[in-house]
Amino acid sequence: MVGVFVKGIEISVICGSLEPTRVIRNANLRHRGLNPGRVELVKWKTDEGIYVLIICVRSCYDEGKRTAETLTMDYHRGADVQVRIARIFNTYGPRMCIDDGRVVSNFVAQALRKEPLTVYGDGKQTRSFQYVSDLVEGLMRLMEGEHIGPFNLGNPGEFTMLELAKVVQETIDPDAKIVYKPNTEDDPHKRKPDITKAKDLLGWEPKVPLRKGLPLMVSDFRQRIFGDHKDNSGANVAA
């Protein structure tokens, strides 16, 4: 069994840098207290490594991001290309694709259409959600600054899928039903960014809580689904 020591997960490459990846051979992850099918963490850190397997069902997703970041660093080192790396966590907001399959857009579209909210597994897995304007601010600070990264850009506020469903119910339809379906294989149980580095070096942290940003997304979705131009409160949120 081969494990790869990866410096972080949820990598979205703007252009960037990464210290060389270390390969751990013959590492028996079972003896390290990890389920070999998934990575269990309370927080995703920028510089603190974790063990993952490279042959799980969703490994190509993680490995693709890691490879892109490594190649970007090669261009930086070999060709002196100016680069930056952001590791972007779940983002939501107006003009998001309605049927893109992400949990926030799924829940909002289902509630507006009077369909049951689909929760996979027991709903206790957690994610964090940042409003799009917070992400844009973080990317601007990164691109205009002198630090290469990598930086975690995400909102550390953590919600279980059931908690998110309840926020959507409160915002759209308190009577919306919840249905449970089998979870996807290798679905991470927790996902939460550690944004200490972004706060310290970029002076950035998210400002918009979920309960403030979600209604703006709902207004946009309602307009695009039903053509209701009267219910459009816009995408701007005061910091």
From TrEMBL:
The record's top EC class is lyase
Alphabetically list the UniProt keywords: Decarboxylase, Lyase, NAD
Q: Which GO terms describe its cellular component?
A: cytoplasm
What pathway or pathways are given for this protein in its record? Nucleotide-sugar biosynthesis; UDP-alpha-D-xylose biosynthesis; UDP-alpha-D-xylose from UDP-alpha-D-glucuronate: step 1/1
According to its UniProt record, the EC number is: 4.1.1.35
Q: Which family does it belong to?
A: Belongs to the NAD(P)-dependent epimerase/dehydratase family. UDP-glucuronic acid decarboxylase subfamily.
- Specify whether Lyase is a keyword of the entry: yes
What role does this protein play?
Answer: Catalyzes the NAD-dependent decarboxylation of UDP-glucuronic acid to UDP-xylose. Necessary for the biosynthesis of the core tetrasaccharide in glycosaminoglycan biosynthesis.
Q: Which GO terms describe its molecular function?
A: NAD+ binding; UDP-glucuronate decarboxylase activity
Q: Which residues form the NAD(P)-binding domain?
A: 58-215
This protein's cofactor list reads:
NAD(+)
Question: What are the GO BP annotations of this UniProt entry?
Answer: D-xylose metabolic process; UDP-D-xylose biosynthetic process
Q: Which InterPro entries match?
A: NAD(P)-bd_dom, NAD(P)-bd_dom_sf, UXS-like
Q: What is this protein called?
A: UDP-glucuronate decarboxylase
Q: What would be one Pfam family of this protein?
A: GDP_Man_Dehyd
